[in-house]
Amino acid sequence: MGITKVICFVLILFFTGPLTANSSKFSALKGNPELRSASVIVLDSRGNLIYGKDIDTVRPIASITKLMTAMVILDAGLNLDEDIVIDTQDRDFIRMTGSRLTVGATLQRRELLLLALMSSENRAAAALGRTYPGGLESFVAAMNDKAASLGMHNSQFADPAGLNADNVSTASDLARMLVAAQRYPTITESTTTLHRDVEPYASRGPLTFNNTNRLLKNENWKIELSKTGYINEAGRCLVMSTNIDGEAVSIVLLNSFGKLTPYGDSNRLRKWMLASSRT
Predict the structure, then answer these.
(1) pTM of the predicted model, to two decimals?
(2) Among 5, 67, 85, 109, which one is least packed by beta carbons within 10 Å?
(3) What is the CATH number of domain 22-277?
């Protein structure tokens, strides 16, 4: 079976609901992992629910938004080698956060995609949306159209960076987005890159950007796609496609209280799944 047919088959299974209870080694886990995130969903590659907590509550999703931003850019087939100059419009006028990409910095579109996904660079994401055909308004419309096409009926997107608290979704909707994002090699590669040097200024040396997901440095984890997010209204958020004990697993953690809680919850989940599946 070709890779396209395999992907379509997995998506069909995900969208049509769980299979039989015995289709995964994690299908009958006992106990409770006692997670601190407000909303959680964990699925196997067939769409079977491994664990769920408040999966349909609509919440702000912060920089998890950038996965949608990347998909819309890649769907448009834009020239990834095109140079894009950071503009005043790309500054964060909502949270007033800073950036090492000052006005006038120049990078290729593919480099901006990498920085937006890997290190959650807000100006990189803003520049991607601004330079989309038709401008930012058309870009946001395309984000919402993409969400609708994926069946994300409880989601709304308002900006490409996730700084606006009106970027909202549910754990179950984000699981759909996570499955879709795995179809894009640029996204899987970018979100699992640990660090990258870029040269946005002709007269200066390179700048090093790092990945925001510390679990990528943990040898116990085999992560194939990830994205972190944070604004006050959203709390700490983390979505991942990973492999646990030979099984492909999707994890969505929303509104985690405390900077390290998403990582603690991830490790608690993994420990609970491994212990339960081997008893």
Answers:
(1) 0.91
(2) 5
(3) 3.40.710.10
